[in-house]
Amino acid sequence: MATKIFTLSLMFLLALATSTAASKYQFQKLKETNMVFYMQDWETGANATAFPVAGIPHKPWGILAFGTIFATDDKLTVGIERNSSEVGRAHGIYVNSALDGSDLHLLMSFVFTNKAYNGSTLEIQGADRFYLKYREVSVVSGTGIFRLARGYATLETVFIDIPNSNAIIRWNVTVFHY
Length: 178
Prior knowledge:
Belongs to the plant dirigent protein family. This protein has one domain (about 30-175): AOC barrel-like (Beta Barrel), CATH 2.40.480. Helices cover about 15% and strands about 50% of the residues. The protein has one helix and nine strands. The chain has one helix at about 1-25, and strands at about 30-40, 50-55, 70-75, 85-95, 105-110, 120-130, 135-145, 150-160, 165-175. The chain has an eight-stranded antiparallel barrel with strand order 1-3-4-5-6-7-8-9. The protein starts with a helix and ends with a strand.
């Protein structure tokens, strides 16, 4: 009997502690943040930022090849130009996940380095059907200013060089956070 009371008391205290921690955010109004920046995705040249790291054995690895996995450290900039001011970096991976080569699956952390969001991150996940003019992926989380963020991003390819696998992607991001 004493063990049962102790167990129930412990469960009650754990539930109370959990609900108290969660209630910190429960009554706060969500803020909406909108931002636009450009991801400089370069797989060739002296300043390449994305590299194939794995693929299907005995098949060529490339952006249009199913199963190819890329590691990326792409620059995020204010403008379309490669030398435009940096707002952060896109760290992560993308995988060509369509048998016909038409779809990338993105898993990225946007690590902000600009004054407004320095040290904060956004976590991105989703299907990038890069042959479409506009695509949408999810913002699934964040840190710092964007703690517990949720939202979406619309992508538009503004420059593409398929033979060299280089691209500039315009990101229009909307996040809701505390």
